[in-house]
Design goal:
Length: about 110
């Protein structure tokens, strides 16, 4: 790729974003936001899928499949990875989103059961 002003700008911005998110408090806030976004998405999915009863099976199959794929990606055993601290922020945010969706669906199930 050529070294243009735009690519240089993108490299600098991504470098600044990485150094900005290296702070533990900011990292924790990104993880909490992803967890809460997953909870919101679960409420949205259950509301939209509940409107039409024929979509329930397809949506549940898709959610289970995506949850298992995310778990496989996050928790697979890499022999080259020395410790658990080497996980990237993106993988942890995606895992937090998955946990938020699972939690939100459980909360929605309890609300429907009462």
């Amino acid at each position: 790729m050529q070294n243009t002003r735009f690519s240089t700008l993108l490299d600098r911005l991504s470098g600044r974003l990485v150094t900005f998110l290296r702070n533990p408090w900011r990292r924790t806030s990104v993880l909490i936001i992803s967890l809460l976004s997953g909870n919101f998405m679960a409420t949205t999915i259950s509301t939209v899928a509940g409107q039409r009863a024929n979509l329930d099976v397809i949506v549940s199959l898709l959610l289970v499949f995506l949850s298992e794929v995310i778990s496989w990606i996050v928790y697979r055993s890499d022999r080259g990875r020395p410790s658990e601290q080497q996980r990237t922020l993106l993988l942890e945010a995606i895992n937090g989103f998955k946990i938020g969706v699972s939690y939100g669906l459980f909360v929605e199930a309890f609300k429907l059961g009462s």
